[in-house]
Amino acid sequence: MSEPVLEIRNLRIAFPTLRGSLEVVRGLDLTLGRERLGIVGESGSGKSLTGRAIMGLVPPPGRVSVDRMSFMGEDISRLAPADFVRLRGRRISMVLQDPKFSLNPVMKVGRQIEETYHLHVGGGRRQAYARTLEVLAAVKIRDPEAVYHLYPHQLSGGMGQRVMIAMMLIPEPQLLIADEPTSALDVTIQLQVLAILEDLVRERGMSLIFISHDLGLVASFCDRVLIMYAGKVVESCLASELDRVQHPYARGLLSSVPRLGDDRPELPTLERDAEWAQ
Description:
The chain is an alpha/beta fold.
């Protein structure tokens, strides 16, 4: 068996409160190969913070502790900030859910992508320009040169998300973390963005962590799924076996999903048990 791309043991993230320290991620274990791993759960379950911890981006006063976090065999849990900067973007990239808040509004998108290239790869201006057009074409933008000269406010939601994916891909990372990359898009554009991610993972051999609220989307797109509740992983399964999960929270999430032809007068609500959060 080949070495995992990412391995995490006992990840914990805590924030100080007036009532003491509050753990928002508790004892998370994760092993990722060259695959598409989905992480699902409600808002506040710790999905996005897990992704940020891998990137070394948990905001203060948050505190991260972990027994082991290795990437491609290298322990990254105790990297100095300067070393994390070299890792982040170049080898691990993260696509956030809304490009409107991630792109510089007063800078043309092509120059922003070039800036990422210069930071992580180097090279001259002509090389950066050619590489930028190449990655814009890779995310299925029909006229890369025209889009290069646009400002973020001139992009549609789907186009903005493609630009963000292109920006994260230009250093050719080995791991891509996509945090709700399709949540602000309509269904047709969602499918287009997912097809782009699938092609890139398959063609480049990248690993993907796909963070989402949408169980149906994760089941159809990912290889494996982790289900989180109150900062803990309560179930892990193959995406193809998602309908066979056993944990009551996971079963409750599945039963609350509307389906075509559903004749139930109302969707069931999730009956929570305090023991789930223990």
